[in-house]
Sequence to fold (198 residues):
Amino acid sequence: MNQLKSALATLSSCYDFEFLCSHDTLYDELKKRKQNKSVDLVLQFCDEGFNNDPRQELHMTAILEALKIPYTGTGTHNIAFAYDKDFILNVCKSLDVPIPKSQYFHADQDPTTHTLEYPVLIKPNSTDGSYGITSLSVCHNPQEVRRCLDMIRDTFKLKKIAILVQEYLPGTYVTDVSSTALPATLPTALHWLWEWER
Fold:
């Protein structure tokens, strides 16, 4: 946050910035600024969800849309669609985008009955990014699938949750990347590194 504030301070001769970081007062603060016409655009950086609950990520943009305040980033509908991994996989498939073999399991179905070859990757269907995916997510047998399901249920505090089982694609798994940790041949990214190999 301090780096962001420093970077935006370099634009202070052209723009005024305020930082609203309290979820408890956020709606009222935004509403007040809208009524006072003191907001032109919100730089929306809250990707952890309202009250830092990943299941409420789209609530942040929905508040801004309800107040008719322009903002940067993805819209509420897109966040909702992207939150459903099986839906996005089917969209990609319909557009001939290569995807791993996948099987969707409703919350009341047993993912250990999948018909894919081991190893498989087990992940919650309705999450953002890699939330709920750990080193336990690569499973080599039904016992490991059950252990992974227990971990996912504990993480989300749910007894039942929709699951996506996918063929495991071997190699280095890289999500958010730091330019200092990457080979020079790869493009620079502006996030932190989480690299994991099994």
